[in-house]
Amino acid sequence: MLRRKIETYLSEWKQDEDRKPLVIKGVRQCGKTFIVKKFAKANYQSVVYMNFLLEPDKKSAFKGNLDVDTIILNLSALIPDSRFINKKTCIILDEIQECKEARTALKSFKLDGRFDVIATGSLLGVKGYGKHKKENDENEGVDSVPVGFETIVDMYPLDFEEFLWANGVGTQVIDTVKSCFVNESVVPEGIHKAMMELLYRYIIVGGLPEVVNCFLETKNIGMIYQKQRTLLAEYEEDMVKYADDSDKPHIRECFESIPKQLAKENKKFQYSIVRKGGRSSQYKGSLQWLEDAGIVERCYNTTITELPLSGNAIEDCFKVYTTDIGVLMGMLDYGTQADILKGNLLGYKGAIFENLMADFLCKSGQKLYYFHKDSGLELDFLVRFKGECVLIEVKAKTGKAKSMNTALKNKGVYHVNQAIKLGQYNVGRKGEVLTIPLYMGFLIKDEIKDSVIPDIDLSLLTP
């Protein structure tokens, strides 16, 4: 049974006396349903579950009046063995994007307060809640989102730390790695070697629970790859099922172009790579569909290496990475997995290890940014770390980082003081550059500390 970080979040949510209905959104097959069911069974006397995708008849419970008494009466008729016990019942609304009225009803449940509600949605972004909402969409509408009456949280496939838990790596070992990162001290050789081996396994497996379980049970590369291919086929079925007819072929073309996009020396996403003569107007919405579905994340180029990164992002200049490294591996030829384990990769290894870093950042809730100039200077990633803009360079093994060194030497131009270089290193520092092993990438995040705004001396306003 896979241990997930969101379980801690769920426990904290339940302890909040003013909790709102919870909406958990994330890519298909990332483990939402399993975790919610497990949590509800362990924490409630009664659990009422429905899946609007597999049980469309349950939508009828939310037709007409949306007061809680009416909904409970309807559900009692539709689910004969259901029990609704005040303060002791959890109602699970799975695949809520299929029933806009159920999403609207979350406001009623919050105001009523008798029952806890957890909703999950795999395709909330592409079913009317995303950035490219169609005004004439009959199935979903802006009014269905109960703003202020729900709590939304993103869930991802397993991150690297969760993968370590699944492989039996204990807290003491992980804490040692974290301590070495914080204190910039060398990782003990035995731990370092084992962590590098586990990292390579994470690259070929990724974090989708079905694939991770297949890996743990079989250790068979062929079966792991087949499981990845099956899940990719399910993603492509969603593209056909849920997208507008005009977008369906374009979405698939965008998705299937990702390995080729990352193979280029300049990995900027180019529509002409999707199809010869391709233009932004043809594919922009399709790419947004993939992002709203949680399958990919854009990494935006910035005008300058300064905070705030979002404020300096260039909207139409970006790379595209898969949010889970296993998805990219499933898109590559069979045999690539064995090549990674044997160290046989040549030119494409840079793309894989960059996507690995994107995986680390996405799963810790960070947006992706990089910096590229026409002169050729390119920095793999920019992050907010310890309150400042820090450069990230990713090396599959070891190597020089010419662009990074140029940026650090020209502070008047680039305004950066620190850089982190990841590769087949142990921990070390040379001046402004911290070198760390690739597996420490999941630790690069800005820990936001609570701070208090000081009082203003209003006497200064007295004439």
Cross-sheet strand order for the largest sheet:
2-3-4-1-5
User: How much beta, percentage-wise?
Assistant: 15-25%
Helical segment tally? 18
Give the helix proportion (percent range).
40-55%
Distance, first to last CA = 69 Å
- How many beta strands in the DSSP annotation? 14
Oligomer: single chain
- Mean pLDDT score: 93
Shape: globular
Pick out the low-confidence regions: 129-142
Biggest sheet statistics:
5 strands, parallel
- Structural class, judged by helices and strands? alpha/beta
Report the radius of gyration as a whole number of Å.
24 Å
Quickly list its features.
463 residues, alpha/beta, five-stranded parallel β-sheet, five-stranded mixed β-sheet, 14 strands, 16% strand
Give a description of the structure.
This protein has 463 residues and is α/β, with parallel strands linked by helices. It is built from 18 helices and 14 strands. It has helices at residues 6-15, 32-43, 68-78, 100-112, 125-129, 160-166, 171-183, 189-205, 209-218, 221-242, 248-263, 271-274, 280-292, 325-331, 336-342, 349-363, 402-409, 411-414, and strands at 22-25, 46-51, 89-94, 116-121, 151-154, 296-302, 313-322, 368-372, 378-379, 381-385, 388-394, 419-423, 428-430, 433-437. The strands form three sheets. A five-stranded parallel β-sheet has the order 2-3-4-1-5, sandwiched between helices. It has a five-stranded mixed β-sheet with strand order 10-11-12-14-13. It has a four-stranded mixed β-sheet with strand order 7-6-8-9. The longest helix is centred in the middle third of the chain and has 22 residues, at 221-242. It is globular, with a radius of gyration of 24 Å. Residues 129-142 have low confidence and may be disordered.
